[in-house]
Amino acid sequence: MLNFKNLNHQLILQKTSLKFSLLTLKKRAILSFCLSLSLITGISATQAEPIYNREHIFHPVIARNGMVSSQERYATEAGLEVLKEGGNAIDAAVTIGFTLAVTLPRAGNLGGGGFMLMHSAKENQTLAIDYREKAPQAATRDLFLDDNGEVDPEKSRFSYLAVGVPGTVAGLTMALEKYGTISLGRALKPAIELAENGFPISEDLYESLLFAQKRIQAYPASTAIFFKPGGMPYEVGDILIQKDLAKSLKLIAKEGSKAFYQGA
Question: Computed over its alpha carbons, how large is the radius of gyration of the chain?
């Protein structure tokens, strides 16, 4: 006679095994169902992989109402505050983008560009904005070649010729106008405050400034912003103030993107 009780027990074990195999393949944190894990893999509970490993760069996080992530803490907090006030994801993204122009100078800056991918749950539509930099109108195919016709990395990466027409300000303001709910002034508020009043230099920012010290100090105006008088580097915890950047951000908040591209 077929033992249905035993068969059901085998099926349950097979389903459990499949479930844990999928979790392992996806490199998810292994849940501590120690008994099931021991039966399936033969690994004792004392040898089970921990749920959290500080060396991993991915950490599972759960939130009920919304979530914000960026490369820098102050920018993330600025975006989260917008969500708490009732703003949508685009409001938070634009706020973060402008804040990174202050707190992550090596990447998040007004003189650069980027992309934005968004999904409208209401309209069930996925949209993308491309606001990467554009080559100047007078650019030519041989712009970055040396006298021998070979590509010159210095020209293409670190010279004045390498500068494209920035897209950051145009892209972020357009995204806010078309898909956001808050004002441009509100989106720029955290960035203006951080630039004007300053913020403590993090370990990450400190190391990036040291790495680029030689190139930054080739330009006196940049040296005056990111290094102490005499060219000495700021230390972790020192306050970085960017008054001129604050003025630029205030003009953008007041007059829109035209202040950046056409002057004010």
Answer: 26
